[in-house]
Amino acid sequence: MSSQQQLAQLLDGSLSPARDVQAQCEAQLTALLRAPGFALQLCELLFTSGPSPAQKQLACLLLKKLVNAYWVAGGAAGDEDDSAAAAASSDGYVVHDDEKRQVKHALVVALQERLELFAESKLQTALCLVITAIFERDWPDQWTEILPVVLQLVAGQDKLRIEFAVRFLSLAGGHFSSDSCCDLVALVFPHLQRVYVAADEFPAGLRSRIVRIVQSNLLMVGMEAQVGNDSARRLLQGNLAEWIGLFLAQLAAPAHVVKDYAVKIQVLAALNSFVKEWPKDMADVLPQVLPQVYALLAGGVAAYERDVVLNAAEEADGYDSDSDGALIGHSAMVVAAFEFLRGTVHAPTKKTRQLVLAGLSDFVFVMIAYMQISTHQMATWQDDPNKYVADEDDDSLSYNVRNAATDLLAELEAVLGRKAVVAALDAAQKRLHAASGSSGSWRVQEAALLVVGSLAAPTLAALAKNAAEVAQLLDLNAFLQTLFQVMNAANQEIYLRARALWCASRLAKGMSEEMLGAFLQVALSGLEQSQMLPVRMYACRAIGAVVKQDAARAQVQAAGAVVVARLIHLAQLATDETLHIVLETLVVVLQDAAHVGLDTADAVVACFLHHWGQNLNDPLIAELIDGAFGALLELDSLEIVAKLHAQVLPVLRGMLLQSREDLDAAGRGVTTAGSAITILKTLLRHSFVSSTTATRSSEDAVTRQLGAQVIQLVFEPLVAILLAVEDEKVLNAGAECLKWLVMFAVEPLAAYTTAGGGGSGIDATMRVAAKLLLPSLHDSCAICVGGLITQLLLKLGAALPAATVQSILTAVSARLATAELPSLVQSLCLVFARLVHSHGREILVVLEQLPAPAGTAAPNMLVFVFATWIEKQSEFYGLYCIKVTTSALLAVAAWNDPRINEITVVGSEADAPAGSAAADDGAAAGVRTRSRAKNAPGANQKQHVTVHFLTKLFVVVAKTLSQLSDEEEEWESSDDDDELSDDDGDEHAAPAGGASSSIFAPSEQFEQLSDRLDDAAGGADAVNNDFEETEDEFEAHFDPLNDIELKETIPQALQLLTSNNDLLQAVLPELTSADKELLASVSALSA
Known about the structure:
With 1087 residues, the chain is mainly α. Among the domains are: 257-474, no CATH class; 901-973 and 995-1086, no CATH class. The protein has a two-stranded antiparallel ribbon.
């Protein structure tokens, strides 16, 4: 058997349906890729007439794989598709130069003499990919012959050769350099133009590829022209206008078959890229281009309605692709036209935007016709009503003509402002009036309402400012009355009624109190079981919109029981696509409720527990449960609290016990435990807040009873989980649960005896705390240990043996010495801050007697703790934490204790030598607070002075005060900007960064310190900042220290400290110029 026959057998075997045969043959072929001569053997098989098309296609694939992996040394690097060959190339095999020359010669000869063997389109593409792979690596230096052959093919008259040459140029276009593109354009474009205009002789796919070649090459020539290449500039001028003329003629040509749209789509993409690349040059051409694009859309409406909107079948090849992956079909062409307009409106020329505005109303009028719901969509939604919400909801990920149109509307409004709103409303009103007398025009009406609702926010903003041009187009009260009539009309099409509900909910902010009441009744009727799901889903959205309006609050609260009952029933029918919407609305209603009956609360809890059990891995469901249970518990009803505990705690116990058994089963136990402990945390913090608010005493018997109930049911399963896992979500949430139990149920906890004689609940809690303090545990798992330790010491400090307290402090300081995450450092420093507040100067004596952590240079724990704390203080975040730690440091400073005053730490950046560039920059920079210095270049190379504790304290608290003042100024400035903003502007600029460096505000809105850390540490810490901010809010609720006003406390403390002349004389010499400037500015702020 010859080698060619053996190769043919291996190729057939790799295509075999028998998996064992297929795997064996594929392994042999993969091994042969490294065999000398195999590339040439593949070429021999390709260029003979015997092999089947399947064998040739597979041979091309193998040859391409071989080229990618072994043509040059390291050739497989970064080639994701050839991972197997990349792994095999570790032996350093590279195809020999002689074999390369023979392969390339064989390919050139095949192009000249054997191309008939590749008449099939797929085979042409496969061979082109092989040639392109070699071309990428060897052209121009080592394969000069290939391009003249390709140019000869495209210059000839043979259609097969022309088609192959165009296919190659399309695939290889990205490998031409900008300078070689100029030569290519001069040589090839005349032939491409000859082929392109012969529309009747060549297929649409070929002409589409020509457009792509022209687009990519003209863009590269343009790059050369922009850097001063005169010949490139002349070449561009000589070709651009001519090709744009050809493109516009293509847009005007009728589409006889689906594939004709492929050329139009590629033309629109090319024109779009030209506008983006040369906006000023194209501004002179756009007066001819835009009308042609508008005419393309206007002229295609009838065909679109016939073939797409009213056709029960799915659009033929609507989102299919040709062999190069280009989208084709009428719908795809419409989307491409919308994308062209999006690109055009962003052109930074006033002339272009005025041109867009001039025809915008007519354009939107036509666009509405393309936004109609199709018969095929209706059939799909009828089979699965939840698919309607998945396709049509505001957060839909589906991309179709309707969603592309609404995206375009948002873009037009963002760039053109109120003028775009006026044009769109004008078009929508014309459509609504034209369709009002026709019973069969509901699709157009629905699409027009989609336009109005999409622009609801800017429309209401304009009406609030009495914008006459908007008010003339939209009488809001009359329009809403019409919507209500549509919603209530049982004979109207279901999707029109649903859209009317949606549109009205978007306009709810502009409703009067009376109208909100009427809308609420319409929405309630939309939630009835007899309504179809699309109507009920948008009725659900409508309820959520009404709840947000203060004027409707009393009415919503009065109908609360009915609303909740209907939402619960709707949740029973929901699927994955719609469940979140229903539960989210239910949470919003509960959070706004002034009263909820016991039966209603019982039904709500049962509903959420049911869906939680079915969606344990859904973080949004867990978040919604947190909101729902929190809302119920915050009603200050002890009956609801007790009822909720009775329902939820047994479920949590069962989940914790089950998860402990499942911990070894592929992580399922951790997931279940994490979800259960998160809900337990919600239950505890809200319950204790509710009980203490209702009884006005944290020591009340009701609070202790709640705590005892929790301890009895879930404490031991909780501790068992915490001692068994090292999952950060589980450990952090579990530490918070234990903290709340220590805070409010310490007596039942101390009285509780664990099973098996394991000691009291306090002993078990101590074991968990000891685990969290282990240096071997990752920082991210111990973020919340500081709060737990603090409560243990505050609640039990007097009852604990001195040795136990000392061991706790030793463990905390040892963990502080190894902590790297800023959030863990902050958590541990808070322990000592709270001890300063609770024990006063006594804490200094205790810390002085204890040794410093191993590996540190401090003589004792006192020096280590306060040196570490004051150096890290400026990195703390969260206003509550800043209040606790800053006030504690000021109290320590007021003691004027020599043990503290003698501590030395790293201070500010040293002053640069006089006359240096750094000194000049520093003089111009002003006060270097964190918000001003966070992006300073070369910060890590700065030299820092060594200063005493009090000097560092002066600077730290001054920066805190300055930062707080900056925050207030930013908020006031933001408010002023909002008041002065002009909605009628032609441009709207978005903030570039979107992040602030605030240390006081919630982490959801502001950049945290962890965002500026390296990726390895920052990722884990960023997850926990959001977590801690929420916890701080609850803990601050019970802490009198939260009432501290830093803007008053800091100046008073600084004034007291500076009144001590000896202290002042010790501090002043250690201050840098920047420190002095900072303190001076703070003094001015205080004054």
